[in-house]
Amino acid sequence: MIKTQQQAPMSTQLELTPLIDIVFIVVVFLLLTANARLLSLPVDIPTTDQAAPASANHHSLTLAIQPNSPMFAINQQGYESWAAFEQALSPLLANADQQVTIAADRNADVEPLLKLLALLNQQQITNTQILMEQQP
């Protein structure tokens, strides 16, 4: 024979656990939705006497290496030989902070690019960018 447990007599006391759970949920909801005071740090920005901001005159130098004649170019001015290219480039590299952009064609030889990088290293030019094209 199967015996069942006897049911506990109903108590007349109030069950507070669900009530406390609901109160905590409401408190958390109110804390999350309450407008918090925004913390900010005051910053004093200096004022200038000039109306327009001073613009830096950054002159970029673009060097191109191409697979066919003219093989070298400085700002779209072509040069047939390395000697002429180096002679024209040396005075332009007097400013070591000048930005130099190198655009080497995909089909060009690597040797002229290495010569150019060695020349830039010798002249202590550090602000150099090499343009590259993604392959399809």
Automatic annotation (TrEMBL):
Recorded superkingdom: Bacteria
What are the recorded GO MF terms, alphabetically?
transmembrane transporter activity
What GO CC annotations are associated with the protein? plasma membrane
Coiled-coil residue windows: none
Question: InterPro entries annotated for this entry?
Answer: ExbD
Q: Which Pfam families match?
A: ExbD
Keyword Transmembrane helix part of the UniProt annotation: yes
The protein's name is Biopolymer transporter ExbD
